[in-house]
Amino acid sequence: MHVTIRLFAGLAEVMGSSSLAFHFHESPLTAGRLKELLSASYPEAAPQIKVSLVAIDHEYAPDDSVISEASEVALIPPVSGGEPASEEQATPDGRFSITDQPLNGEALLDKVLDANHGASLLFVGTTREMTGAQRTTALHYEAYTPMALAKLEEIGKEVEERWNARCAIAHRTGLVALKEASVIIAVSAAHRDSCYEASRYAIEKLKASVPVWKKDISDSGEQWLGADPKAKDYGSL
Predict the structure, then answer these.
(1) CA torsion 162→163→164→166, rounded to 10°?
(2) Whole-angstrom Cα distance, residue 93 to residue 224?
(3) I need a surface site. Which of 104, 133, 142, 217 has the fewest CB within 10 A?
(4) Which residues sit opposite 213 in a β-bridge?
């Protein structure tokens, strides 16, 4: 069986490619077995493969998930919130987007305002310069765009179901300079308490589950964040 696997961020750098064509002789092939076979074939990338998740058709896949030749397969390194977006890609309603252009908070907030909502919040995550003694000069973001958009939509639906709130999210890709916004989340709700809770939930869920990666660029070099659980979250929100 022939499978093409998409690779991102630090894993793509180690493997030297953003995609990998691989032939397997096992059937059925599961997500867990895929990682085992890839680790054996590419020992230099085994540590990164071990901590990565498999995605099948834009959904995270448990180890026992079966892969077919028709599946779109990706290895997802730990997210730190890749293909860089060359233009804005958004959901049909425009409330969730991935773009390499500067983000517009006022326009995003306008997408969630509701005559029956008395509270609205705009969360803006920007590149900061200092994290302890570490100085960041810029951040570089990559996203697995189709899956990232789907996960952002899921967050929006969860926010609506749990808090009866409206949510819109825009995430930047490419180079993001100091003080520039990398992510903006707009939320509106009937009351301020639920609005605060929904906004906090959205950013925490985004950082944990949306396939977006960031590379810290500093005077001492460059480092993909998220792959090393002991590494500090330099330059982040």
Answers:
(1) -110
(2) 32
(3) 133
(4) 142
| Residue found under tokens 């990998």 | 20
Local structure of residue 95 (DSSP, 8 states): S
Give the rounded percent of residues in the chain with a pLDDT score beyond 90: 83
Strands 166-172 and 181-189: antiparallel
Residues ≥6 apart with Cβ < 8 Å to 61: 31, 53, 54, 55, 67
Peptide bond into 146 cis (omega under 30): no
Q: Could you tell me the two tokens for 161? A: 């179901």
Which residues, 6+ apart, have CB-to-CB distance to 140 below 8 Å? 174, 175, 176, 214, 215, 217, 222
Contacts of 138 (CB under 8 A, 6+ apart): 127, 175, 176, 177, 178, 217
pLDDT digits 0-9 by tens, 154-194 = 999 999 999 999 999 999 999 999 999 999 999 999 999 99
